[in-house]
Amino acid sequence: MVSEQSPAAEADPRFTRSRQAIADALTEHMQRTQTCPSVSALAEAAGIHRATFYNHFDSVEEAAVYVIAGDFRALHDLNISDRHKGADPAAVAVATLNAMLDSLRQRRSLFLLASTWRSSSGLMGIGDLLLDQLYALRRDLGVDERESGPTNSVEDVYTASGVHGVFSAAVGGNTDCDPDEISVRLYALLPEWIRRPPASLPN
User: How many CB atoms sit inside 10 A of residue 154's CB?
Assistant: First the structure.
């Protein structure tokens, strides 16, 4: 999981501005050059001191994970919102997987950079984000009260790692099916609790 800050720090507008400036500078740099910037170059582009960068992230790779985490959070929120509006759960799940994959394709160099960051969970960057997504999905679907921590379940680690692997192959164009079919086939491989969620969602 990307480094978390105290609620007081996150409520500080300067903290939010600095973190967003880092994210924006990194996104722009990766789109323009497809190469990983140094911390000094990234801090300069973001208009902050090098020390300020380390108040937010341990590395440029962790900052890349943060950028993609924002994309994933937005897609998760849309997923849950659509379910609350009565949309078909299977269609929503496939659409979410498709949107996640499209986002990663558009940010390919950022995705590759984020994938090299090893988190405290033991998973690499995107796998760790997907593990977080599973816990958020469990919570928002009311499946169970399991929370992330030092004892991640084998099922969740397997699922997150598997989805990361498929995403990596798909972004690299190395799968055995049409790009439009990847999300459908991936959905069919997900655990039953995702494919058959509770009929009613918690408020």
Answer: 7
User: What is the Cα–Cα distance from 150 to 191, expressed in whole angstroms?
Assistant: 21
Exposure letters 16-37 (e unless 16+ CB within 10 A, then b): eebbebbbebbbebbeeeeebb
Contact between 135 and 147 under an 8 Å Cβ cutoff? The reply is yes
Cα-Cα-Cα-Cα dihedral sign, residues 37, 118, 133, 107: positive
Contacts 24+ apart (CB under 8 A), 115-121: 115/164, 115/168, 116/61, 117/59, 117/61, 117/62, 117/64, 117/65, 119/1, 119/2, 119/65, 120/1, 121/1, 121/148, 121/152, 121/157
Task: List the structure tokens of 178.
Answer: 């049409």
Tens-place pLDDT, residues 175-192: 888 878 999 999 999 999
Regions of the chain short of the pLDDT cut 70: 1-11, 145-152, 203
